[in-house]
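Attaching the record inline, Q. Sequence:
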Amino acid sequence: MKTGWAVAYGVLCGLLAAGILFLASRPVRGEPIELRPMPSPSPLKVHVTGQVKMPGLYLLPPGSRVLDAINSAGGFNELANSQAINLAAKVEDGQKILVPARGPVVGPVEEAAEGPAGQVVYPLDINLASQSDLESLPGIGPATAQAILQYRSENGAFQAVEELDNVPGIGPVTMEKIKDLVTVNP
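Structure, as predicted:
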């Protein structure tokens, strides 16, 4: 009886092996799957302004740094304060990179607020700055610029840059970004 079971088991294993070989040797049906390459990431759109040779909007590859954006804009001009900007920072899509001027600009107040071709020159006197001048500062949008103007009209001229801490919407992070870009002239 044991031999009968062994024979049946052997036949069953043989049929199973034959079935596997039959399925493996059959020609492939259907169409092959086409693998498409990974989509390439979109370029970053960056607005470079301030003290560069060719301010404007630039497309940069993902992973670019601030230095790459400035080089795309023709590099620093002769008024640029390259020490006031982090050249190694990674660029983000939609970012505005503002290159400040070095030192205070000498001349009449009207000329100190505007540079060539309407560019804002830094440091910016917060007692004379317009809404658009204030919006050119990093971290200052239309609402915060309006809050600065309102504070100035309600409380009089700023006596020190540190008074910006009293303006709603300006916290320590924003203050750190703009403290070297603003001034209060006597």
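The CA atoms of residues 125 and 184 lie 5 Å apart. The chain has two domains: 40-102, 104-186.

More tomorrow.
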